[in-house]
Automatic annotation (TrEMBL):
Belongs to the homoserine dehydrogenase family. The keyword DNA repair does not apply. Its cofactor is a metal cation. Its EC number is 1.1.1.3. It catalyses: L-homoserine + NAD(+) = L-aspartate 4-semialdehyde + NADH + H(+); L-homoserine + NADP(+) = L-aspartate 4-semialdehyde + NADPH + H(+). Catalyzes the conversion of L-aspartate-beta-semialdehyde (L-Asa) to L-homoserine (L-Hse), the third step in the biosynthesis of threonine and methionine from aspartate. It comes from Saccharopolyspora gregorii. Pathway: Amino-acid biosynthesis; L-methionine biosynthesis via de novo pathway; L-homoserine from L-aspartate: step 3/3; Amino-acid biosynthesis; L-threonine biosynthesis; L-threonine from L-aspartate: step 3/5. This is Homoserine dehydrogenase. InterPro entries: ACT-like_dom_sf, ACT_dom, Asp/hSer_DH_NAD-bd, HDH, HDH_cat, HDH_CS, NAD(P)-bd_dom_sf. Keywords: Amino-acid biosynthesis, Methionine biosynthesis, NADP, Oxidoreductase, Sodium, Threonine biosynthesis. Residues 355-428 form the ACT domain.
Amino acid sequence: MIEDREPIRVALLGCGTVGTEVLRLLQGRPEEFAARTGAPVQVTGVAVRRLHKHPNVPEQLLTTDAAALVDGDVDVVVELIGGIEPARSLLLRALRSGKSVVTGNKALLAEHGSELYAAADESGADIYFEAAVAGAIPLLRPLRESLAGDRINRVMGIVNGTTNYILSAMDSTGAGYSETLDEAGRLGYAEADPTADVDGFDAAAKATILASLAFHTRVAATDVHREGISGVTPGDIAAAKSLDRVVKLLAICERVVAEDGTESVSARVHPAMIPRDHPLAGVGGAYNAVFVEAEAAGSLMFYGQGAGGEPTASAVLGDLVAVARNLVVAGKGPRESAHANLPVQPMGATPTRYHISLDVDDKPGVLSQVAATFNDNDVSISVVRQAGRGEEASLVVVTHTATDAALKSTVDKIAGLASVREVVSVMRVEGEPS
């Protein structure tokens, strides 16, 4: 009988928005969780910073001594503190003592994932982290398990709800970045300090995790090229619209195959124009979506709520059920897979496309000068469009694929041409043939 089994004892570190939901759902449906795991699931303690901030948590569960809770008589540590320390030290402590871990800490995994995986391997403990990327969307487990026998070539997605809300609002209203960010803050879509979101740090940490899982390679946070959205202007949004495109902040992780057959991994986060008929283009508001391209499975898209207490708690509880099942049957979850050990390609060597908008002099020969500069740098032009007269004269160029370094060098040289008054905007183009 399930009720006769020893309970799975859980230590909960952190009881903010997500932790509160995890505790509420566990305590509200104990019979369901026992049936799903094969044993009762019991929260034995909740570590918080300030006891008086949690009046709805039973007093006997609360503690400010997270280390003592981890060292106590528990089987699973659920970490929802966030940040690097003390989360790193507490989880290493748990794993080294053989206690399994569930975490949603993307920054910690991006910076210290290999250390945590090594500790888990050494002790035989599990480490699950579905909530670290894309909230409620079941994404990491498919990459880690369901697609483990396939060859993934590309993972491209919208993995930050704040920036997606801002860019979606700019597209629909024509408003500027600053006023849209202010509105996002008023509506609760942006933090008081939105730096991690709008400067791309959050998405880059998630890209680190996605690339590591997809390509069986250890990718560090410092390997991921990162650009935020603060430089995106209404002019960029309008330019995208004129070409039937939309601007999104994308996390892009891909397998790059050189002409000699050698492979590497590219991981980057930046704004980009994508066609309006691309599956990711219609993802609006604070939602997340990730597009996976695999050799045998083909194209797959994962879509849903990427943040929030209840959606993220769903991912945490899914991991907790998996860990508890493993404990009941004396099994183990998937381990780190870094066997491919592919090199990470620097951004300068990564093939990309650009949309470039130029203010130019209205006189003969300007187009030929600009085209010659592209040609001199071995960058092929896909589309060129000339518009306006006099002070309103402009050129729009869309390139074929070339290395990012070559494209940047080309833009720098174009900016120095006497006939080019200003390089108005430069944005990468993704999601369509090169």
